[in-house]
């Protein structure tokens, strides 16, 4: 590494699911090195096999970190802070990353920071668009979570809504399986949907009704299992009629449109209710072009609107977002203890459920 290095240098490590990824972050958002290795051992199973994921992380972690450091022109000894996803996720996979990070940090006498995976997703857009800062409405959509947040400042996350059953990404994965498409389902559905006509089939918009009002508990919540069941029934009927092959792309398009419509509609409700027209999309499903375009389109006429999302590479699981979230927690003095560990489920730090009407809860924009 030539020239001056902006400190602190953070090494971010992500092993919560089926990506082994490491990134070197310098200062606020300069990514000096970044390697994302997607495991392909799961392909034949049509989903992630936890034990195989843990083993694959263990096999690849050294080389992934080494390559990220090489890209940065740095060595382990140049790292100031070691950040790693500590949860939520697959416990075996998480433990590989956390144990590795703790051992290295301990050996070098440097701090380690345990990162919440979904908070990391929320930081991802800010790596490429530095003005993706609060206040904003955050929509986090991944394989395991669907969260609608009102973010007044980093670390203060007011939960507006969440899924009551399947996560958005899970719904894409299940519908893809049903249509005989490859895992992960999201990109497969998106590709197929691009060739289909969403209007050919009418699918429900679960938990989205005109007569809902903000105090209703389902005003912001999501439900995707009913939509999946509707697709199951549609596919069964088309199959019985011998039309499934011809209709597959149209079904994918109709499903994607229904899922996107619910996600965008609820986000717009939050924008309206909080007077905050800035939206940050995070998590694997935010790589979906139809979601990005529809969100931007329906916010177009709202004064002061901004829609932030990361490039596809940083929308999916990656080490750079982990490094960025670790940097935030490190700045707040939140260094982990040496007996700290990973957890399959982990409370979102700073998440609270203050009612909309609470004094000071509304953010006026600008
Ligand atoms: O954030 P992520 O990479 O991992 C988790 O934290 O779960 O999200 C993975 C999820 C999977 O369910 C995958 O099908 C979905 O994100 N996904 C997509 C797209 N790319 C990934 N869903 C819709 N459209 C996409 N283009
Ligand atoms: Zn993720």
Quick tags:
single chain, 366 residues, binds 5'-O-[(R)-(carboxyoxy)(hydroxy)phosphoryl]adenosine, 10 helices, Nucleotidyltransferase, domain 5, six-stranded mixed β-sheet, 2 domains, alpha/beta
Describe this structure in words.
- By secondary structure, the chain is an alpha/beta fold.
- The model is unreliable at 358-366 (pLDDT under 50).
- The protein folds into two domains: 2-121 and 316-331, ATPase, nucleotide binding domain (Nucleotidyltransferase, domain 5), CATH 3.30.420.40; 129-312 and 351-361, ATPase, nucleotide binding domain (Nucleotidyltransferase, domain 5), CATH 3.30.420.
- The strands form two sheets. Strands 10-9-6-7-8-11 form a six-stranded mixed beta sheet, with helices on both faces. It has a five-stranded mixed beta sheet with strand order 3-2-1-4-5, with helices on both faces.
- 51% of the residues are buried.
- The protein has helices at residues 50-72, 91-108, 117-128, 168-178, 185-193, 225-240, 244-274, 289-299, 312-315, 319-331; strands spanning 9-14, 19-26, 30-38, 81-87, 112-116, 136-141, 146-153, 156-162, 278-282, 306-308, 351-352.
- The chain is globular and about 65 Å long.
- It starts with 8 loop residues before the first strand and ends in a 14-residue tail after the last strand.
- 5'-O-[(R)-(carboxyoxy)(hydroxy)phosphoryl]adenosine binds next to α4 and α5.
